[in-house]
Amino acid sequence: MSKHTLCGLAAVFLAGTAVPAVAGPAPGAIDYVKVCGEYGDAFFYIPGTETCLAIGGYVRFDAMAGSTSKGYQNFNDSSLWTEVESAHEGPVIGSGRSFHNALTNTQASLSFDARTASEYGLVRSYAELHWSVGSATRAVEIEIEKAFVQFGGLTAGRSQSFFDFFTGFDDPVYFAPSVSNRQTNLLAYTFAFSREITATISIEDGTFRRATNGSDEYAAGHKVPDIVANVRIDQQWGMFQAMAAYHQDYGSQQSTAAGTGPWQKDGYAFGVGLMFRLPQLGKGDKLWLQAAWAKGAVDYTGADPYWQSDFADRSNTGLFQRTDWSLTGGFHHGFSKQYGVNLLASWHDSRGWVWRNTFTGANAIYGPKSADYTQLDLGASFDWTPADNFLVRVGGEYRRVEYATANNYFNRRPTNVARSSDDGLVGYVRVVRKFGGDDD
């Protein structure tokens, strides 16, 4: 994207959020930019308006090296080690000669946060753009991370799902823990019962939550959006959130035989999260605990939608939904202003074992391959902050997956099916320089 295009986008954004000034006489003295302290030190008034703007962003570099025990091809012919929306999608770390054992990724982010007070409440627009280039594609990738409007309790646009609570410590370098961490298009309203207690109801685009083993071939048209709700309590001791989601499973296969089906089922997800502030241990110390369960909506538990699926079709019975649950914990301790450590662990259990096209006739199965599996993720990192908004992080991420290996059963974790496992370990260095406004 050229600098002229970027400037043009910024101009359009500002024009859409600024309150136009009343026409007056020709300007005389220079109208200097004024600080807008109402929303924070990073905000300033757009000249000639009552709109406050903060411009922020970061530049981040990741370098990583590691290996897996067997390579991704041993797990359902699909990538075991990458997230489908990750910047590292494509060539992956592995054990064979065709796999990478070292990767790099560079990302730049630019955000605009514009706020205007009105007689009906605060009007806010926020946009965040990402540019990245790495070993996976070796091409610059551009994405809209967030773009939403807020007015009172209303949020409309692309934002973090209101199901999400703990999403890890920044973006994962390679192995994402089992947490729900999804940007999606949504229309939500948050009810504030007090400064400490809120509740949100959100209508969210279900296509961003589809888990179809990397293909939409077996999921039919999107009919009903996801419905997400949460209740959050934020107090001095910490934070609590309970969340729930509805997700429709709508298969592409159908049968004309009487009594078959149904070919649409309701999927659900539930979760609860706790965060404890622990200033007695260190400044900024926090402990996170989270649990999630889902049936036919596995993305809400942190399952990778690229090699996992919500359901499979069976010609004489209808949809067969998967059931997943996950537990996640995280701890941050600051030794001082400059030094800190992060610890992360998650456990994922997935059931609903099915192998596509291993039956024919009345028992035919249509849909992505899916295996019963358990997944353990561990992560640890050491932070050094030699200057404000400048971070150097050194850490490691470990993953172990155990899964069924036979391909001729349609059962829940069959006891007579052999099991296998893969391990992966990645070490990394991350360098981040932030500037300007705070995160959204």
Structure notes:
This protein has 440 residues and is mainly beta. It has a single domain, classed as Porin, CATH 2.40.160.10. The protein contains one helix and 20 strands. It has one helix at 3-17; strands spanning 44-45, 51-68, 102-118, 121-134, 141-151, 154-160, 183-192, 197-204, 226-235, 238-250, 264-277, 286-295, 311-314, 318-321, 323-334, 339-351, 365-366, 373-387, 390-404, 419-436. The chain has a 16-stranded antiparallel β-barrel with strand order 2-3-4-5-6-7-8-9-10-11-12-15-16-18-19-20. Strands 14-13-17 form a three-stranded antiparallel beta sheet, with no helix packed on it. Strand 15 and strand 16 (339-351) form a beta hairpin. It is globular and about 70 Å long. It starts with a helix and ends with a strand. Mean pLDDT is 79; it is low at 1-22, 70-92 and 406-417.
Key features?
single chain, 440 residues, mainly beta, Porin, 16-stranded antiparallel barrel, 3-stranded antiparallel β-sheet, 3% helix, globular, disordered N terminus
CATH architecture field = Beta Barrel
The outline comes out as globular
CATH class assignment: Mainly Beta
What is the chains' assembly state? Answer: single chain
Please report the total strand number as a whole number: 20
SSE string: HEEEEEEEEEEEEEEEEEEEE
What is the CATH T-level topology?
A: Porin
Major β-sheet profile: 16 strands, antiparallel, barrel
Tell me the span between the first and last alpha carbons: 24 Å
Q: What is the number of helices?
A: 1
Gyration radius, in Å: 24 Å
**How is the largest sheet built, in terms of strand order?**
2-3-4-5-6-7-8-9-10-11-12-15-16-18-19-20
Family: Belongs to the alphaproteobacteria porin family.
Pfam family, one: Porin_2
Membrane topology: Multi-pass membrane protein
GO cellular component, one term: cell outer membrane
